[in-house]
Amino acid sequence: MQNDEFIKHQPSTFETIDTGLYEWVNNNLDLYTKTNKGIYKVPVLWLGTERVYQIKNDVRLRDKVGKLILPLITINRASVTKDPNFKGSFQANLPEQQDYRGGAITNSSRINQDKTQNFQNSLIQQSSSNSQQTGKLSENSDVVYEYYNTPIPVYVGINYEITLRTEFQQQMNDLLQPFITTTGQVNCFIFERDGHKYESFIQQDYSMNNNTTNIGEEERMFETKVTIKVLGYLIGEGYSRKRPKLARRENRAKIRFTGERRILGDKAPWKKKDKDYRD
For a Cys staple, 232 with which of 17, 71, 129, 267, CB 3.0–4.6 Å? Predict the structure, then answer.
């Protein structure tokens, strides 16, 4: 029976990395603090979205006059760097194959059951007098594999700025502590998105920009910035790519060499003229 399993593959893009980090902060850290209304889950806001969407998507973000309600966490992509010294497991450059399929590295593989079955049935029929006999797949049978290839990942270093804003010092302590203690004694963690894994590093400096020293009429606010550097990778050219995301190829299960055969035999017209002719 043919394997109808669908091969799912989503290439790694900037949006994939952004969404993965956002979900790590919003879902994995799942930050809470105490307010005058009880234990409160602090909303996480991605600064790249439209302001109209921000207002309509979550009514907790702003009050009646449109002012942001604290505490609040915002995430922003600050910079992108393509540094050859900051890369992952693929150290060398592997160019794509120069055909309409493309692809450079194997993403996944599976057995083509239909073609493999034809090889097995042919082998059983040759070794048996019954031309209709089929058999079980043997260990030495010719197996046809389908390989799915993708372009080589291109590594980039992305810096994200996570800003924590609160009205009280105790709320800032509640939000900042998980960033320090979640990873243990190291500052490294891994988050996932669409089957891709990204190694990330929380920078050791936590810059604080509080206005508590100002005794004017300005509203008091505590602000801390947490910088996270992500070792991300990009696959393909996005919508500009002219080749498929996955290039499907098959291996050579068997190579046959055809032997020389005599068709006309002794009646060949050139045999009488050529004395050195041999079968």
Answer: 17
Closest by CA to 233, choosing from 150, 163, 161, 162, is: 150
d(CA 117, CA 136): 9
Distance CA 104, CA 247 (A): 9
Instruction: Summarize the confidence of residues 73-79 as an average pLDDT.
Output: 94
Task: Take residue 279 and report the two structure tokens written for it.
Answer: 């079968």
Q: Residue 75 half-sphere exposure, CB side, CA atoms within 13 Å?
A: 20
Say what the pTM is.
Answer: 0.73
Q: Which two three-digit tokens encode residue 219? A: 């509203």
Residue with tokens 């190694």: 199
Q: Right CATH number for 14-85+153-234 from 3.60.20.10, 3.40.50.1820, 3.30.2000.40, 3.40.50.1980?
A: 3.30.2000.40
Smallest CA-to-CA distance from 223 within 163, 159, 161 is with 163
